[in-house]
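Two records follow; treat each independently.
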Amino acid sequence: MSVISIANQFVGPGHPPFVIAELSGNHNQKKSLAMAMIKSAAECGVNAIKLQTYTADSMTLDVDSADFMIKDKDSLWHGESLHSLYEKAATPYEWHEDLFRYAKSLGLIAFSSPFDNEAVDFLDELGVPCFKIASFELTDLPLIAHAASKGKPLIMSTGMASLAEIEMAVSSANKAGCSDIILLKCTSTYPAEPVNTNLNTIQNMRSTFGYQVGLSDHTKGIGAAVASVALGATVIEKHFVLDRLAGGVDAAFSLEPNELKSLVEESYRAWQSLGEVRYGGSVSETKSKQYRRSIYVANNIKAGEMLSDSNLRIVRPAHGLAPKHWSQVLGKKAKTDLAVGHALSWQDVE
């Protein structure tokens, strides 16, 4: 796996997790709310914010037939038509430049998920540093090829894709000239349950395709995302909302600011804790070794007296002979008088 540069920030092995706050449609069609979300995300310490670039008409048809209705009773959006849902969730094109500029002013990387070729061109003209392909679009090979042709890194959520479908998506990107690819393990249910998240796929996906793998996480909370770091996830994407109770199309599985801040902090701690394969303690543990056990005089001993378990004990600290010498010491005689609390050494033994 190679390290990838996104807007001059390195992403990949040897670097902290790259955390993305997905605004999605949680701005509720209010630009001021979108701005406030970006400001809050920056305060939480994320690396990037992401938008979604589409219109209801570019996503689907304005038709009320059964094919275009959300019929799954377990869905957050049961009973809605696809067109009306995307109308509510869309981020107006005319906001993008201002939102991107504001994010950059706060030190954030800003990019988006395009859902058609026109959106790719629009985002490219705005100078986004990378593109994100949503999980439901992973089988839209013409879209992937067009985004890949722009010469920028490509982040692709795999969702319910099979190995063959991921291979076709990667191949399409490669043929269009893109080799800077990051795949995201993703469970395309909203919200997703931890039991269906299957984080162990991250390692298999990385070894199978040879690219960095991260997590686009739709579970509630931060547990799955933090755990993914231990499995080598280099990117974490989570949906974000200022207040779940205030609503938003994705609010039910989005993180509030205090949770997002915790995600940034804990994923960084998880990454730091990975370290390297090491036995024998670290440099920082050197002083602690004195609190191991060793052999001490437990009762006053006269010169020539036999050393036994009645006048010696194995206790903390470790300034005396190591416990491994216990059987060698017992039955020997003391060279000199030894007082209680004396750390036994070979010089004390005849």
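The next record belongs to a different protein.
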Amino acid sequence: MEKGTDLVVVADPDKDVQAGFERLFGSHMRVACFSETEAALQFLKQNHGTAVIFSCFNLPGRGGTAFLRAAETIAPQAARVMLTRENSADAIKKTLNEAHAFMYLEKPCQSTDLASAMETALSHHFQLAKDRALLERTLAGSVKLLIDMLALFHPEAFRRTSTVRKQALRLAKRLGMKKTWELEMSVMLSPLGEALLPKQILARYRAARGLTEQERNILDRAPDQTRDLLKNIPQLEKVSEYLFLSGRGFDGSGFPKDGPTGKEIPMIARILKLLTDLWYASPESGPDAAAFEALTINKRKYDPMLLELAKETLMDDVPEERKRLVAECYIRSLRPGDVLIDDALTETGHELVLSRGHMLTPTTIRRLEHFHQAAGVRQPIRVERHSAPEEALIDTA
């Protein structure tokens, strides 16, 4: 019989039990056996599609009851079955009330009884999955309506969601992520904390103007506000945690200060961090070489695998002229001979200071400095850098 895709996890140190499951179900299901709790939980974290989880009561590690309770959080759609020799009222009570087990079976268990229990558990799993899919579609529609309404009052905060969602789905496909609902919800809700911030702080941040320590603290705590808003909504508990950690750098920088580092940060939070910063670094036309160069300057903040994959994935359909390496500079770093990639605009009024395609000279750079002192100029400024020596340039401004 051809092996199916249903995945069954067996947590029991008894090698005879493990062999029995392999013998009964290994030919037509995927069976993963473990002898203690932590390895089994780690496996579940990497295989959210698990259909059925079997556990013994006296499982090495944290015990069978605590294991099934933790498994419920990691794989809520999996049917959980306690298979044990413990038949005391206390054991049964803990199994049902604390572990929230779907079924309780006593050892030794006949093969026919175990096969019947597996069939019943699979049916329960399929019903949970069906209910979850319906709930996700309903919740997704509600979230979209909420975002559309909030965007009317705070369009600047939510204008990135459409672009970032498409980029996130492309990355998810390359990563082999089969379930993308939580990723999509995280992207759609990611600006929620920003929408609650004072608009002047966001304007200064987007224009690369300096922020006071108090303003920086307010900005950094936007993910915390988002988590507080979402954590009590059923089915969005994980999403709220991803958003809470979305400002956390791979190197341990950012918010929260005592949060996880490296690969301990959930993958969805790492994707959000990368794509949000990429969006801010990109022009209206989308990411280009300059945007990725800006991220590379602070590459320790990002998962190196994700950064490389994003560059490879999101740049594959970018016109060749936008793939050229350009510089992203603050005014003090501009050089004569640099050519503006975008219009140079004032920070608040968006008044045109210099148009795109303009080759900078010492005079035009001073003009930008004067405008910045008077009204502020949006920075950083993206330029194409030429190799001509400064003394060969003619100042025509």
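Discussion point: The first helix runs from residue 15 to 25. How would you locate this feature using only the token line?
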